[in-house]
Design brief:
six-stranded mixed sheet, Rossmann fold, Phosphorylase Kinase, domain 1, alpha+beta, six-stranded antiparallel sheet, Transferase(Phosphotransferase), domain 1
Length: 772
């Protein structure tokens, strides 16, 4: 069916198939949206009972309107084919994440699943097939319970397939396995199985055949969760074991009670995913890390709380702040329009209930006449903020408008004209006006926190904005100029934490972009980050910059993770934070967690080529080459000249033993990058395919193309592929001494496989903390 058009739906790809349906991803050509279509399998299409069952699924699920339930849009029929148009959920099945190493994530998912069942049961709907395969985790960490195909409507008759008990054996309650009439408590049992499996990786009742599993369900007690995993909280274990009482009367009687107990288990510092999915009232988190003025903070508060409260019961939970237009065309004022935009983005990020698109995602629309609805659809957000700013002498005028993407309606707008000499005061007056206009209700503590300034010096703030403007150019000249402006800001205000954080980020990129050796740039980055945090511990980007230095330079893995997590706690909408933390996790061998983080980064910056490429690369590192190829081809479709994607395609084809294809992709990458890192991949594929002379030619080219320290890791990789292990290890020693970034990859990267049994390699692995 791929490529066919059914009614007004163009079939794009097959998503999956189960006993009660085949699901395709499709384009709704009428409403210009991506949906999922579920068709009754052809072998059941003529069976009246199965058709009734199919319609029952749609009616049951369509009665639910909850953020943790997959939405049903319509029931359609075309040329005798019945199908359901339902929400397309972009994410991973819970099954693919089990076991979940991070207990905070497991608890967050458990809370959301129980909340979804609470909603269903309140409508008289029993799912009867709760299992990890029927639960999705979106890129934002939100749970979506799928497939109410076995739902039993309140007042409906008993519906089973001939000769079968409805459900999945491993997750069946005792009463369901015996074929008895069941109620909502069977879902509570199945939920208990899922919660058990999430943290242990094993189902509590197992067997080689169905009857053996059923015997255990009816006659044996599950092993305590703590026997599988000692770090499971005792309260979590008690909840699971109560859900798994064999007598329904002794079990939890309501899913709402499970939900309440799970929420009580969440103590202290809850993860962003818990807060984002379970808090229904507006919740103001710690102040954002780059909020330089009360104006931006209060403006963000006004927009953020309006989005959460403003339109009846349904929150507008996502926003893109488009780059403010520099209407006067004065290039010397460009840093102001960009700075106001970035300040708003970072300030709005303090609301954990609000998904805020990253700077790099929205700045792709800079300079064009972007239509808010089109931008909203492209970035998958509910609201878009647009603005225009014009500076003429000492006068500054600002226009801002908030648009609902769903119907292009005007939610809010205002125009301001003020003196530009004191930008901080101007922004504060704008924020107060918006705050009053939206009638926000904040506690005294929240209001005081939002009004806090990181500097009272308007000149320091202007210098900081100029530093951000040049840092975002990501060029050698831009980074050097940003350091000058950050330094100027600190001369104007020596206690300006954000300026120190900016310095840390700038010094950190000097090595990444090959401008300065790691031994020169990273110590400066660490010193600046530490100084920022001494002044204000809540500067999220300083934590992230420090984490990156610990990861890539110090090889202090525990410190790196601690700083990454703290940065994301302070700013859960940082696409860079999620991206860099994902890199850390993949190289620690924690692939499932890495995929969750890279997916979160991609949801915040869906058009990012490097995030999309790294997601494909992670699949390659996890030896999931088919998934890697699918993801990397998506990136190439966006930009066929992005050399990193071609390099990763080369790695993946090489993993499949398709050396000619690998060489072709590596050659494309070398051509686009004009040499550089892709040469090591090309040399390796030449060696592995038997073209040893070509591999040695690449080695000579690498030696003549630049600093041997920079080339050392690549030379080690090609020599290892040629079987010259001792020469490879000599080069690897040089890479270690130079603090080469590739050293961080040694634990899992296939390029190092030929060296893993070498004593010198193992000694180096011990030195950097990868082996005991």
């Amino acid at each position: 069916m791929i490529g066919q058009t059914i009614s007004h739906y163009k079939i794009l790809e097959k998503l999956g198939q189960g006993g009660m349906g085949v699901v395709y991803k499709a384009q709704d050509t009428k409403l210009d949206r991506i949906v999922a279509l579920k068709f009754l399998p052809s072998q059941f299409a003529v069976d009246a009972t199965e058709r009734i069952h199919f319609l029952q699924e749609a009616r049951a699920a369509s009665a639910l309107n909850h953020p943790n339930v997959c939405h049903i849009n319509a029931i359609e029929e075309h040329e005798g084919q019945q199908f359901i148009d339902m929400e397309f959920v972009d994410g991973l099945r819970l099954r693919d994440l089990i076991p979940i190493a991070n207990l905070e994530d497991a608890l967050a998912y458990a809370i959301q699943i129980s909340e979804a069942l609470t909603e269903a049961h309140s409508k008289g709907i029993v799912h009867r097939d709760v299992k990890p395969e029927n639960i999705m985790v979106t890129r934002e960490g939100r749970i979506k319970v799928m497939d109410f195909g076995l739902a039993k409507l309140k007042g409906g008759g008993k519906l089973t397939r001939v000769g079968l008990t409805v459900g999945t054996i491993t997750y069946m309650s005792p009463e369901q396995a015996q074929g008895n009439i069941v109620d909502h408590r069977t879902d509570i049992w199945s939920l208990g199985i899922v919660l058990y499996e999430m943290v242990t990786g094993e189902a509590p009742f197992r067997g080689d055949y169905d009857q053996a599993i059923i015997y255990q369900v009816l006659n044996t007690e599950p092993k305590p969760l703590s026997s599988h995993r000692p770090d499971v909280p005792a309260r979590y274990e008690q909840i699971v074991m109560k859900a798994l009482r064999k007598d329904p009367a002794e079990r939890y009687q309501q899913a709402a009670d499970v939900f309440t107990d799970l929420k009580r288990t969440s103590t202290g510092e809850r993860s962003a995913s818990i807060a984002a999915s379970t808090v229904k009232q507006p919740f103001v988190r710690r102040r954002s890390t780059r909020t330089s003025a009360a104006a931006i903070v209060l403006l963000a508060a006004g927009i953020g709380v309006y989005l959460i409260w403003g339109r009846g019961a349904e929150p507008l939970d996502s926003i893109a702040v488009l780059p403010f237009v520099n209407a006067a065309g004065d290039s010397t004022a460009e840093y102001i329009s960009d700075g106001v935009t970035e300040g708003l983005i970072n300030s709005l990020s303090q609301f954990p209930n609000l998904k805020v698109m990253s700077r790099s995602a929205v700045f792709r629309f800079k300079g064009g006449a972007a239509d808010p609805q089109e931008v909203g659809r492209a970035l998958h957000v509910r609201a878009v903020l647009t603005g225009r700013l014009a500076q003429r002498g000492e006068d500054l005028s600002v226009n801002a408008e908030l648009v609902d993407v769903a119907d292009n309606s005007h939610l809010w707008g205002e125009q301001y004209r003020m003196n530009s000499l004191d930008l901080l005061t101007i922004e504060e007056r704008i924020s107060k006006a918006i705050f009053m206009n939206l009638r926000l209700r904040l506690s005294g503590e929240e209001d005081q926190r939002l009004r806090k300034r990181l500097t009272d010096n308007p000149e320091a703030y202007k210098s900081y904005l100029k530093g951000r403007y040049h840092w975002n150019k990501r060029t050698k000249e831009g980074l050097a100029t940003s350091i000058q402006f950050y330094t100027a800001a600190l001369e104007q205000d020596p206690t300006y934490a954000l300026a120190y954080s900016g310095l840390a980020e700038a010094y950190g990129l000097l090595n990444v972009y090959g401008i300065s050796p790691a031994r020169e740039s990273f110590p400066k980055a660490e010193a600046a980050a530490h100084r920022a945090l001494e002044i204000d511990e809540t500067v999220a980007d300083a934590h992230t910059a420090l984490a990156y230095a610990h990861f890539q330079f110090d090889w202090d893995w525990n410190a790196a993770e601690r700083e990454f997590r703290r940065g994301l706690e302070l700013n859960p909408n940082s696409s860079t934070g999620h991206h860099w933390y994902a890199e850390y996790l993949i190289f620690m061998g924690r692939g499932d967690q890495a995929m969750v983080e890279i997916s979160r980064a991609q949801s915040l910056d869906p058009l990012s080529l490097i995030i999309g490429t790294d997601k494909g690369w992670f699949y390659y590192l996890m030896h999931k080459s088919d998934s890697a190829l699918a993801q990397l081809h998506k990136v190439v479709e966006l930009d066929s000249n992005f050399w990193s994607a071609h390099f990763c395609l080369g790695e993946t084809f090489e993993q499949q033993g398709l050396y000619n294809k690998a060489i072709g992709e590596y050659e494309r990458a070398v051509s686009l990058a004009r040499g550089g890192p892709p040469l090591m991949g090309l040399g390796r594929s030449y060696a592995l395919s038997g073209r040893k002379e070509d591999a040695r030619r690449i080695i000579k080219q690498m030696l003549s193309s630049g600093d041997p320290d920079v080339q050392s890791a690549g030379l080690a990789i090609v020599e290892a592929a040629l079987g010259e292990n001792q020469t490879a290890l000599d080069w690897l020693d040089k890479a270690y001494e130079a603090k080469h970034v590739v050293i961080s990859y040694m634990k899992i990267h296939p390029f190092f496989d030929p060296l893993r049994n070498e004593p010198r390699f193992q000694a180096m692995m011990r030195k950097i903390g990868f082996l005991d």
